[in-house]
Amino acid sequence: MAESDKIRVLIVDDIADTRDNLEKLLFFEKDMQVVGKAATGREAVTQAKQIQPDVVLMDINMPDMDGIAATEAIMAQVPNTQVIMMSVQGETDYLRRAMLAGARQFLTKPVGGDELASSIREVYRLQQTQRRFVVAAQQVEETDQSTGQIIAVYSPKGGTGKSAIASNLAVALKLLPGNRKVCLVDASLLFGDIAVMFNINSSKTINDLTSRIDDLDKELLNDVMTTHASQIKVLLAPANPQMGELVTADHVRTVLDALRREYDYVVVDTQSSFQDQTMAVLDAAHRIVLLMTMELSSIKNIRQFLEVAELLGYNDEKLVLVLNKADAKFGIRVDQVEANIQHKVAAQIGNAPFEMVNAINRGVPLIIDQPRHQISIDVANLAYLISGTTRTSREGARPQQPKKEEPKGLFARLTKR
Question: Considering the entire predicted model, what is its pTM?
Answer without folding.
Answer: 0.61
